[in-house]
Amino acid sequence: MPIINTLSGTGSPIDYRKTSSGYQVKWGSTSFSFTNTQVEQLLTDYFQDPKVLYPLGADMVNPTPGGMGEYLKNRIRRFTPRHASAIAAILVNDENQLSFKTIGNAIYLRKTLSNV
User: Fold this and answer.
1) Tens digits of per-residue pLDDT, 72-110?
2) Which of 26, 35, 45, 63 sits in a 20 to 30 Å window from 75, CA-based?
3) How far apart, in Å, do the first and last CA atoms of the chain sit?
4) Is the confidence at residue 111, as pLDDT, over 60?
5) Are 110 and 98 within 8 A, CB to CB?
6) What is the DSSP track for the chain?
7) If 0-12 CB within 10 Å is exposed, 13-18 middle and 19+ buried, where does residue 47 land?
8) Considering only CA atoms, which of 64, 76, 70 is closest in space to residue 103?
């Protein structure tokens, strides 16, 4: 399994394995999977405009309104805002489907142009 860090570079390393149906992830004491269908939903429903920077918003208590964490919590209900940290890192590092930019303490994401 590849091992990567979150986009902030803090926290537990993320171990993941790509499968034909999606990803198996171990992140600290958390294990979960997410499917290719969920990735596609995220890329088409949330990251609609590749020119726009979207907030990661992965805080468990106060996820950024309109952020990826809030989207996951509300639209793919088995995930919490915290899952956004691991999923975003995988989609940036493994799949190059997202790129990211840090502005102050906040992390912003956008769909890469090759995935438009």
Assistant:
1) 999 987 899 999 999 999 999 977 899 999 999 999 999
2) 26
3) 28
4) yes
5) yes
6) --EE--TTS-SS-EEEEE-SSEEEEEETTEEEEEEHHHHHHIIIIIS--TTS-EE----SSSPPTTSHHHHHHHHSTT--TTHHHHHHHHHHHTS--EEEEEETTEEEEEE-GGG-
7) buried
8) 64
- Taking the CA atoms of residue 48, residue 35, residue 75 and residue 15 in that order, the dihedral angle to the nearest 10 degrees is -90
> 43-81: per-residue pLDDT in tens?
999 999 999 999 999 998 889 999 999 999 999 878 999
What is the token pair recorded at 28?
């600290």
Contacts of 58 (CB under 8 A, 6+ apart): 67, 68, 69, 81, 82, 83, 84, 85, 88
The contacts found for 67-75 with CB under 8 angstroms, 24 or more apart, are 68/42, 68/109, 71/42, 71/45, 71/46, 72/42, 75/41, 75/45, 75/46
